[in-house]
Amino acid sequence: MKSMRIELRYTTAALPPLHEGICDSPALEREVIVGGQAVDGVETITSFVYGDPEAYEPLLDDLEAVLEYEITPADDGFFLYLRRDLGPDGLSLLNALAQDTVVVVPPIEVRSDRTIRLTLVGHSTALTDVMAEIPDGMALDVRWVSQAITTTDTAVSDRQLAALQAAWDVGFYEVPREGGIEAVADELECAVSTASALIRRGEANAVERVLERGP
User: Fold this and answer.
1) Per-residue pLDDT tens for 3-21?
2) Could you tell me the pTM of the whole model?
3) CB atoms < 10 A from the CB of 82, how many?
């Protein structure tokens, strides 16, 4: 088995309406699909959308393909439950991904640059079939390949996340900087050297995840 992280890029003409709304609205950042299924051409998903629900809901109301949805506001965005008819374009992509020995591993990231990023696990030949069957209007870029079953991991550890949050809270990332590393150490109740190391490692891991250099 192999794992493969891919990026699918739509042409402007082929971009689905909901994805186009994320790309066009400054109030919407991205959507992270955490689970779903498709039965008889109807897709049911749950996702988290980073952005303003008031900017997203009109997109749902304008689409005949949307059968049902529910929005639950949360910090930084909202949770979405959605049922919709896939239509020919959606079915083409689903069929390309639905190889016998391929598993699509969530989360699936729908981004504001007309791309979708996801991880696939399966036999080499089946992963090659996925690449060959991507529908018109999309281009595929392989971000990384692993010889083992691998998924995208958490970008930072809990301690690194706590350090980054403390740095944010004290104004460490403000321009100009409002709080120094000493203030971060005070928040964490640790030595300055420890706080500095946690921040450096957390920043490095977060940047690596953004650039997606590997599993």
Assistant:
1) 999 999 999 999 999 999 9
2) 0.72
3) 20
